[in-house]
Amino acid sequence: MARPDSLGQFEQLVLTAILARRDDAYGVSIHAKVQELAAPKAVSLGAVYVTLDRLEDKGLVSSWLTDPTPERGGRAKRCYRLEALGERALEESAVTAKRMWDDIVAVWGGEWAKRGKRWAID
Amino acid sequence: MGDRLSRLERTASIVIPPACREEVLGDLHERNTTSLQYVLDAVRTVPLVIASRIRRTWDGKLFAMYAVSLYGSFLFGRVLEPGRLLQAAIPSAAALIILALDEAYAEGPSVSVLGRLRRPAFVCIAALIIRGNILGLIWALVIQALFHVPTKLRRGPI
Predict the structure, then answer these.
(1) Assigned domain for A54 exists
(2) Global pTM value
(3) Residues paired with residue A64 on neighbouring β-strands, in sequence order
(4) ipTM of the complex
(5) Residue A76 sits in a domain of what CATH number?
(6) Which residue segment(s) compose the domain that A90 sits in?
(7) What ranges in A1-122 are assigned the alpha helix state H?
(8) How many domains does chain A have?
(9) Is A94 inside a domain boundary?
(10) B27: which chain A residues are within 8 Å (Cβ-Cβ)?
(11) I need a labelling partner for A92 at 20 to 30 A (CA). Which of A18, A25, A74, B112 fits?
(12) Residues paired with A79 in a beta bridge
């Protein structure tokens, strides 16, 4: 079985957004979710397109065009879904992030972790 | 959608490469309700879309061969002139940029004779205009015949 390349941080965000949006993962919805995950950093729609193209070239996601809808001016959506390779790459990234988090909390303590959670909520 | 927004959308549709035009225009339409919003969003988004499309359609080996043949033909056309190395590099670079954009904006593989001759014809005309050499045409024809992979067969959706 092919082993996925390691992911950049923005690629992780985009893959997570596709996963979270499930059947409704297309440009606008993915961008909104990435913006939410990356807050307070601003994210441009163009950067999301570039990353989606790259992820598709790597075989981590696949896409298809839906039927046109009136609310989009009669234009179709390009929807995305994770491929098996993408799921594995995201899983590896999440496991690595979890290990990092556990070690950081072990060194900096529970108070720091609570503060981190508070920042996330704010 | 107002007339002004429709006009903006028509303008954007010219600039966005055909392979991703449908979804990008739809997304911009969905996100923006005023002309100003639309323009700002399009200005931030479309250059990245074009760059991404060029990256996807860029074939390094093919363009290296184009670069060598173009530079060689332009250089040959200016063999007796002083400063010819730079003089040949500028039109070659301009021609390569146009070729890269042409590839990015291609709508699919061309099956007609005219479609197949479009690129070599461009190289020939450019070579003649900028005092290059007819060798440019011959080289471009050989490269296209031997190495050019139709856009649709390469990676990425069309």
Answers:
(1) yes
(2) 0.78
(3) A79
(4) 0.84
(5) 1.10.10.10
(6) 9-121
(7) 9-21, 27-38, 45-57, 84-108, 110-121
(8) 1
(9) yes
(10) 26-28, 31, 45, 72, 77
(11) A25
(12) A26, A64
